[in-house]
Amino acid sequence: MERGAGTFPSKSKEGGLQRYRKVQVATALFILLMFGAGEAALLRPPNYEVFPFYSWSMFALVPNETEQFYVFVTKDGETREFTRAKKWVGEAANSIVAYTVIQQYGRALLSGNKNQIEKWRRQFEENHMPDDLNYEVRYSKEDPMVRWQQERMTEAPAWPDMKVVGGREGEP
Amino acid sequence: MSRSTLLARWIRGARHWLGPRDRAVPGAIFKEHAEAYQRCRVLIPVFYIFLLYSTLEALPGWSNLMAKTEWKLLWPVGWLTWGPLREGILGILIFNLLTSFAASIFSGSRVARASAFLGMLLFTALSNSTGKVGHNLHVMVLISFLLIWLPAHWNRPDAPRWVRNSVYLLVSGAQGVLMLSYTMAGLIKVGAGLFQLTAGQRSVFHYDSLARQIADRLLQTGSSRPLGEWLIVNPVAAWPLMMLVLYIELFAIWVVFRPRLQVFFAVVLIVFHAASYFTMTIFFLNHCVLLGLFIGIVPLGSLRWSVRGFVRDLPLVGAGFVWLERRRFV
User: Fold this and answer.
1) Which of A27, A58, A116, A122 is most worth mutating to test chain B (most B CB atoms within 10 A of its CB)?
2) In terms of CB atoms within 10 Å, which of A22, A136, B3, B54 comes out highest?
3) ipTM of this complex prediction, to 2 decimal places
């Protein structure tokens, strides 16, 4: 019988064993590649991945005093921090994607790299910020546990002193 | 000796070293493989049905993806800039839907499996080209790549032994891909922890490490989670959980070689993902299902279960237990 007629391509024991060995070696190599490429991706911040191989470095560093960028949104004279402005910016307020873009935008503003600033500004404004809102990007260094105490454990959240690094000022 | 034979020997050595301590019955492994093959024949089509489910679940998000105008395209979808963007995006979404549907019906066909991999790769790349890369789908992509290489006629009941063993091996490889992702996460946590410890910072080894992670995440997204908030206020309660997760993550890859541990590790990891949702709003649904399918429901291997055998198989803990056994302390 021919191969297409329903028999298996390697009828001999040796041929089958050879094919099995190939599968065994290829599988092991693929897993080693996943490990090697993933670990090598640690050299590629900020995503730490060579898609689709990831370093799985999520939550590796425990947050101590870290730099944080905030967006403060202004509408009709009222100012709100981005995550508390859901009625203006919608679901983006609680989106980790929006948070990540804000951090990248903030870092670009702080570094002064014009290409990066423009790239991340567009990402932020086109995907997460309605056109009719003005905003400021502010920067601070803080400990999350202290911030938690200040923001969530008090009646009126207290914001630390922050440096303004960028933003958008439209027509009033 | 050829290079591939040398590698095969090295693999056998690694399997022996990583495997359970009491695999002594001659021929037992072949019986296990025969049983495991039957489970794999069910498992693989179920995997492709789940792939289709993941695609269908993403349907409500199509309009969001189509509406986006600013992209940070990952390399598999970099070609989208060559033509009209919206049509390209729609093309990828439809291609993924059709190929995952085809693979769920024709999982015996390599062309269908290869197309499903390509569809999933493109979709994962597209949905992560918005400025932040999520990692819920990465393992699905890698497993679907591995399963392309199933031998022809792999699902026939009269398949010869090399075909059955190859199927078993590739599903073990899929287990390896899944569990390696956790081991890598554990390794980097330990490495980063040692780095922070030497730098005089709070690290993963400190009692408040999990509380800090939860506080940071909830502040980032302005979210509320009662369990997470309780753990922030009571950080000591979170510390044993963090240490358990670190242990399970670090040694997850061992489980591929020690079937007695598989159900336990799968359950702990699924509970860990559920806990991440209830404390930090992070949910890896795909990982939960894959853990259930590949590790929990269909463990490959049928070593007789006993408490002593289970404890002996536990990495590190097992070595200590065997030491105590030898000195007749337990």
Assistant:
1) A27
2) B54
3) 0.89
